[in-house]
Amino acid sequence: MIDRIHGALNSTFDKLDDVDNRWGDKLINGKVREIVDLGDSLVLTTSDRISAFDRILSTIPFKGEVLNRLSLYWFKNTQDIINNHIISQVSPRSIHVKKCQVLPVEVIVRGYLTGSSWRDYQNGRDISGITLPKGMKMDQKFESPLITPSTKAEQGDHDEPISCEDIVSKGLVDSKLWAEVEDKALKLFARGSKLASERGLILVDTKYEFGILDGELIIVDEIHTPDSSRFWYKDSYQEAFEKGENQRKVDKEFLRQWLMDQGFMGDGVPPKITSQMRINIALKYIEAFELITGEKFTPSDLTPEAERKK
User: Fold this and answer.
1) Is the pLDDT of residue 129 over 70?
2) Which pLDDT belongs to residue 100?
3) Starting at the edge strand that comes first in sequence, how are the strands of the sheet with 41-46 ordered?
């Protein structure tokens, strides 16, 4: 697999430059996804771009295919909880989805005190309006998962934490709908935690995006991927926690940590992502896919040029 990844370093899928007329007229380049607007539906193509701290940094071989296939796995395994936007799979990295009104906030569910929540806690700040008890430790499990939403920033800007109360009081989402969002988010997190645990993993935290279609709340975008979630190995959690050591990770958090070690947290010029780092990241994504699904990842032979013609 390393040889295949190395051979793909110069042929990653960055973006859709030209859109065939049969797709439609409108192309939106997101942080990771290319969105083609077909009028009453969309085609979402997951690129190989990787971002951290809301900045696009590089491309990672096979990343788009891994994320797309993982999201399809999770959508299938959560459709009894909430309907999703999937119409069909177009290619290994593209899906045809229903267009809906996406809610203007990201819904983050946290099971453990880590990442940005730990950094805020260390600095005495609330976590999206939630005041945590004193004396907690890094990577400590919460008694029950917390919902810590954030606003959606424009590309290049930073998302900002917001409390559940402010979401309602500012009219971003009405109270009845927000109560349903919280209920579905916690149920999705519980399902994700259960299935991850069966694979020897801990679902640490995750981001959900919801939308409204014909008056119904649905889940959109992606779900329980290494881009939207943190995963730790279950068998080494307790020992690392007791020693105050970093957890064994199977997500892109190790890239964030590497960036922070270089003094980068989103502002200024990011450090160059080396070829070896790109290979290491690709291996992490593939490892995540195989651990979560129980399937061996065999990348398609679909080239970026072929993807554009789908």
Assistant:
1) yes
2) 96
3) 26-29, 33-37, 41-46, 94-98, 86-91
Q: Does the pLDDT at position 156 exceed 60? A: no
Backbone angles phi, psi at 166, to 5 degrees: -70, -35
Query: 125 is written with which tokens?
Result: 């700040």
One DSSP character per residue, 9-34 reads TTS---------TTT-SEEEE-SSEE
- Quick: pLDDT tens for 23-68: 556 888 888 899 988 888 999 999 999 988 888 899 999 999 999 9
DSSP classification of residue 61: T
Q: Is 224 left (phi over 0), alpha (psi -120 to 50) or beta?
A: left
Classified by CATH at the fold level, domain 102-243 comes out as D-amino Acid Aminotransferase; Chain A, domain 1 (3.30.470)
Residue ranges of the alpha helices (H) in the chain? 2-7, 63-76, 115-122, 164-169, 175-198, 237-243, 253-261, 275-293, 304-308
List Cβ neighbours of 274 (8 Å cut-off, separation of 6 or more). none
The string of pLDDT tens digits covering residues 279-298 is 999 999 999 999 999 999 99
CA distance 111 to 124: 19
Nearest partner of 83 among 224, 177, 221, 219, judged by Cα: 219
- The pTM for the full model equals 0.91
The domain segmentation of the chain, as residue ranges, is 102-243
Q: How confident is the model over 144-154, as pLDDT tens digits?
A: 999 999 987 66
Q: Which residue has the tokens 């981001």?
A: 207
